Amino acid sequence: FVHKKCTVEKEGDTFVSGNREDGVNYGGRKDHTRNVQYLQLTADEKPIFVHNFHGMWSAEGKIDTERRIQQSKNLASHLHKHDGPQIVCGDFNMRPDTKSMEIIESTGFRNLVTEFDVTDTRTSFYDKDERFADYILASSGITVNDFQVLPDEVSDHAPLLLDFSIS
Known about the structure:
This protein has one domain: 4-Layer Sandwich (Deoxyribonuclease I, Chain A). β2 and β3 (about 45-55) form a beta hairpin. The relative contact order is 0.15. The protein has helices at about 65-80, 100-105, 110-115, and strands at about 5-15, 35-45, 45-55, 85-90, 110, 135-140, 140-150, 160-165. The strands form two sheets. It has a six-stranded mixed sheet. The protein contains three helices and eight strands; from the N terminus they run βββαβαβαβββ. The two termini are about 20 Å apart. By secondary structure, it is α+β, with helices and mostly antiparallel strands. Helix content is about 15%, strand content about 35%.
C-alpha cells in the first residue's frame, strides 16, 4: 500500500538470483529465482526508493553459500543504481553475521536490526533455533525516528515497524 500523500513515479524489479526466463519452477530444486521489487516515490516533494527483497532459502540454513553471496552482490549492484534516500526491507533469509549481509551493508545502508540490537525477528510460530530472517536497511538521507519489532503474531515472521523521515 502506498500512502495517498505519496506519488508512485516508477516501479519495477531486478532479478538477483536467476532470471525472468527461469520462471518459478521448482523442477526438483529446493529454491527458485529471486528478485528485488522497488518503488520510486515522491513524498512531500522528496524522492525515495523503497525496495522489497525476499532472499533465497537454503537447506543449509541462513549461512553463506556461493549462491547467497552472489545474490547479495547482485542486490548491492541494484541498490547502487539508484540515487537518493532508499529503504530495503524483507525476508533476507540470512544471518546478520554473514559475508552475504556484509556485502549488502557495504553499500552504505544502515542495518537497523543490528543497530537496534534486535535479537529475534521470528515469532512463536517458528520453532527452529535460527531467530533472524527479516531486516530493514536505510541509506543516507533517511532519518530513523523509531524502529521496532512488534509483538503481534500473525505468521512465523514478526512485523518490523520503521518510522522515518526523508532528510
